[in-house]
Write a structure and sequence with these properties.
single chain, 484 residues, alpha+beta, Dna Ligase, domain 1
């Protein structure tokens, strides 16, 4: 019917019967794929029967009467010319293969991700190797395998560089993690630019007009060395930056923006930065770009602790008081705020009079009180052999951290611990850094107890329940992330 009405319809469509007919069509189109004047990644089978379609219906937005049958990703061979390291926003050091240019699924591929050092070791990719490359999902280029039979005898195994190629800081690997990271954090230019882009993004501080290009220029020309510097920018700084960038790029006054247009751009950006000064704690925490801390985790942290000064001083075990925050996220939060450079940036952002103003600061949640005790603290500290049950036994036997630290070996055994668990605790307490962490966490527990209100009976009844509201709530965004 569409063809009769004059619409362009593909001459490749065909009506077939049964599974054999479908697969024959799939193989036929696959064989003709490279010669088509357009790119395809598969075929779609549809039931050619209107009443049958209505009977089968839909699942969400997908019809039950149609299904896609994808072709295997196209693969080509090429040579690895180099393996370089890219440093991401969180410091992740990702190895990338620089390839001799090759056409893959209609696109010229010159780079392919190698994911991490473990993947390189598994594939045994070396500089000079002939490799098979494909575009995963017909989008992201990746190395599939190495043609080891064509390897040069001089090819050497690849090892992760010891230092960041951008800032020279040590590249380290966390225990149990596949990812290596630059330890330079916000002092690393590569991380700094990405951190500023994330900080200014719509769901973070929402600085409209501060795109990647301007972040590059502000950073490269020395106007912004951290996200805190954004709030010290003046109109003349932006105009001077624009003039210097034009001179560097060889843009002449005739081809550059007129002075009036450039001034208006700078004024708009200054206004956007000023608007972003007033924000919420969850947006601020998300904007910091802490590893593993997305919008949901930032929202939970804001609800449970209520104050950035508390969050920034929190020992990592106490972050586990927040539901759904486990060991990995807690350690990431603690590591971030333990770094002097990060603390300096946060202090700069909150500088009175010229920094960010967090409007929704409040007392810690009353629900925190249930985890502010010795037993829970010992459980959260991840002490070897100290399970939740053993932690409860210790909590019942000792009045607090000072009493535990003064206890003798026989006192610990008398608490009901096995010899193995008692030895694990004694060994852990034998390290000065662990004792400092324990004391610090106990002090913070006491501070939170003094700040958190008593939990009401009504709140206890609702604890742990999810309340779903529908319709329009004045002053709140539909996304559910607080005030619009």
């Amino acid at each position: 019917m569409l063809r009769e009405w004059g619409f362009p319809v593909s001459p490749l469509n065909r009506t077939v019967r049964d599974v054999d007919g479908l697969l024959e069509y799939y193989r036929d189109i696959g064989a003709r794929r490279d010669g088509l004047p357009f790119d395809i990644d598969g075929v779609v089978y549809k039931l050619d029967d209107g009443p049958g379609q209505r009977e089968m219906g839909f699942v969400a937005r997908a019809p039950r009467w149609a299904i896609a049958h994808k072709f295997p990703a196209q693969e080509q061979s090429t040579t690895v010319e180099a393996i370089e390291i890219q440093i991401g926003r969180t410091g992740a050091a990702t190895p990338v293969a620089r390839l001799a240019p090759v056409q893959v699924a209609g696109v010229t591929v010159t780079n392919a991700t190698l994911h991490n050092a473990d993947q390189i070791a598994r594939l045994d990719v070396r500089v000079g190797d002939m490799v098979i490359v494909r575009r995963a999902g017909d989008v992201i280029p990746e190395v599939v395998s190495v043609m080891t039979e064509r390897r040069s005898p001089q090819a050497q195994p690849w090892i992760m560089p010891a230092n960041c190629p951008i800032c020279g800081s040590e590249i380290v690997r966390e225990e149990g993690q596949a990812v290596w990271r630059c330890s330079g954090e916000l002092s690393c230019p590569a991380q700094r630019k990405e951190a500023i882009i994330h900080f200014a993004s719509r769901r973070a501080m929402d600085i409209e007009g501060l795109g990647e290009r301007y972040v590059e220029e502000l950073s490269d020309l020395g106007y912004v060395r951290s996200v805190a510097d954004l709030y010290s920018l003046k109109l003349e700084d932006l105009l001077e930056m624009k003039r210097r960038a034009d001179e560097r790029d060889g843009t002449t006054p005739e081809t550059a923006k007129s002075g009036k247009v450039a001034t208006r751009w700078a004024e708009n950006l200054i206004e956007a930065i000023d608007r972003s000064r007033d924000t919420t704690l969850e947006r601020f925490l998300f904007a910091l770009g802490i590893e593993h801390v997305g919008e949901s985790t930032a929202k939970a942290l804001a609800a449970w602790f209520g104050d950035i000064t508390l969050v920034s001083r929190m020992p990592w075990p106490l972050f586990k008081c927040v539901p759904d925050i486990g060991s990995e996220v807690a350690h990431a939060l603690g590591h971030f705020f333990d770094q002097a450079g990060n603390r300096k940036v946060v202090e700069g952002l909150l500088h009175p009079g010229r920094g960010v103003r967090i409007a929704d600061t409040h007392a810690p949640s009353a629900s925190l009180r249930q985890c502010l005790n010795l037993a829970t603290l010992l459980e959260y500290l991840e002490i070897p052999k100290i399970t939740a049950l053993r932690a409860q036994q210790l909590g019942a036997a000792f009045a607090g951290v000072p009493a535990l630290l003064e206890a003798k070996a026989e006192d610990i055994s008398a608490a009901g611990l096995t010899a193995e668990a008692a030895q694990g605790l004694s060994t852990w307490l034998g390290r000065a850094a662990n004792v400092r962490l324990l004391r610090r966490a106990a002090d913070m527990q006491a501070e939170l107890l003094a700040l958190a209100p008593e939990e009401s009976a009504a709140a206890r009844q609702l604890a742990g329940k999810t309340v779903v509201l529908t319709g329009t709530l004045p002053g709140y965004a539909r996304r559910g992330h607080g005030p619009a």
